[in-house]
Design a protein that fits this description.
globular; Uridine Diphospho-n-acetylenolpyruvylglucosamine Reductase, domain 3; FAD binding; about 450 residues; alpha+beta; flavoprotein; Vanillyl-alcohol Oxidase, Chain A, domain 3; 3 domains; eight-stranded antiparallel sheet; oxidoreductase; about 25% strand; BBE; Uridine Diphospho-n-acetylenolpyruvylglucosamine Reductase, domain 2
């Protein structure tokens, strides 16, 4: 049975917040749902009151404040059921990727999860989903069999290629604009483990590593996932001594192919770029996939994310990135390799149309305005190498306007999303998100 929490009640402050504190939510009501019937009741309650609906699980990707809304917490809806014969999993709306990974691993199977297993599986998938198996198998949204979703009229619907196909197209990549997902069925893949970890280089070889990575990434197979994280570590005694007070270039790797000798050869090429201050690349069971990026999970933070997609990352682009993201840069930068299956159309078409990127570039600042300005200067400098697109999963609270959201889609696809929105949610009840406004509004 759901719990309804109002402002001033003991659990209100804890349940209105997620991991990313860049947005503060002050909803009219919080519904801590336990089942689909609770979600139906919450959506109907919002409709009766004439207020919007927000959805919060882990809160890693906030968008706009849920002020005055009915905020549905889905975290208690976390059951995962695996069918190893069909290689699929039924995932409830509040399950984290960690739960899916642990349910699939005993069968030698893996989902297309993100780099942090602590992120909610549904929200990630609705935005598209690009993780460490994506170059080999595609977007997470490409491999959804069906959704069970509560739409704006309070109905609980099965949405698939056979049932409600237009809505199925829109939900896979269109974010949380079309309803509250109570469960989904997704494909699983025979990947029991990876050759993975990170190679960390000190500031002395920072530029050499960037240029070497640019050459290396252009040649590797689809079975090799990689990214580069550039980060200045504080001069804090709590930091490991090899990182403390230094600018570190993290090259994160996950080779999922069967030819492990090939994987080791590819890693050795990167090791030759310079001495490593940390080297954790090893054979990993898939249950340890989160150790590769080892993203923070314990202490909520305010993070201001912005991203652009790059056509390529050549030597000129590497030099430009080095100029703006080297020692002293007051923001985190991630360059992630795309291509492979991410550049190919889905077997069942969906709203992810911008498949022409070779890399994504994500820059994350703290709330300081000066630091955010410098972050934006980096992205401006990299625009000559960009496609003009963004990716929804990597967007932040500063890019919630319709014009900003539209950059993630082909113009024709964005227009189609707006038409489907008008047909399913004409009053824009689901607008506490990276909103696609209904056509005509």
């Amino acid at each position: 049975m759901s719990i309804v929490i109002r402002p001033g009640e003991p659990e209100y402050d804890a349940l209105r917040s997620g991991f990313n504190l860049a947005v503060e939510h002050r909803p009219e009501l919080i519904v801590d749902a336990t089942c689909a019937a609770d979600v139906v009741a919450a959506v109907r309650l919002a409709s009766d009151r004439g207020v919007p609906v927000g959805v919060l699980n882990t809160g890693h990707g906030p968008s706009v404040p849920a002020d005055g809304a009915v905020l549905i917490r889905t975290g208690r809806m976390s059951t995962v059921d695996v069918d190893p014969a069909r290689r699929v999993a039924r995932v409830e709306g509040g399950a984290s990727w960690r739960a899916v990974i642990e349910a699939a691993a005993p069968h030698g199977l893996a989902p297309l999860n993100g780099t942090s297993p602590h992120v909610g599986a549904v929200g990630y998938t609705l935005g598209g989903g690009v993780g460490l198996l994506a170059r080999r198998f595609g977007f997470a949204a490409d491999h959804v069999r069906w959704f069970d979703v509560v739409t704006a009229d309070g109905a609980h619907r099965r949405v698939s290629a056979e049932e409600n196909p237009d809505l199925f197209w829109a939900m896979r990549g269109g974010g949380g604009n079309f309803g509250v997902v109570t469960a989904m069925e997704i494909d699983l893949f025979a990947v029991p483990g990876v050759l993975g970890g990170e190679l960390c280089f000190g500031p002395e070889v920072f530029e050499d590593v960037l240029h070497g990575y640019a050459r290396w990434a252009a040649e590797v197979p689809d079975t090799m996932a990689s990214s580069v994280l550039l980060l200045d570590y504080p001069d804090d005694p709590a930091m490991p001594p090899e990182l403390r007070g230094r600018h570190i270039t993290h090259v994160r790797l996950a080779y999922s192919g069967d030819n492990r000798a090939e994987g080791h050869r590819l890693v050795e090429r990167l090791r030759r770029l310079g001495p490593r201050v940390v080297d954790t690349v090893r054979e990993l069971p898939y249950t340890e996939i989160g150790s590769i990026h080892h993203e923070p999970v314990d202490v909520p933070v305010p993070a201001f994310d912005r991203n652009i997609m790059l056509r390529d990352f050549d030597q000129d682009a590497a030099a430009t990135l080095a100029k703006h993201a080297g020692p002293g840069a007051p923001y985190l930068v991630e360059l992630r390799a795309w291509g492979g299956a991410l550049s190919r159309p889905a077997a069942v078409p969906n709203a992810i149309g911008r498949r022409d990127a070779a890399f994504s570039l994500l820059a994350i600042s703290d709330p300081d305005v000066a630091n955010r300005t410098r972050r934006d200067a980096l992205l401006t400098a990299m625009r000559p190498y960009a496609t003009g697109a963004t990716f929804p999963n990597f967007s932040g609270v500063e890019d919630t306007s319709p014009d900003a959201v539209s950059l993630a889609y082909h113009p024709d696809d964005f227009a189609r999303l707006r038409r489907i929105k008008a047909a399913t949610d004409p009053d824009n009840v689901f607008r506490i998100n990276f909103n696609v406004p209904p056509e005509g509004r």
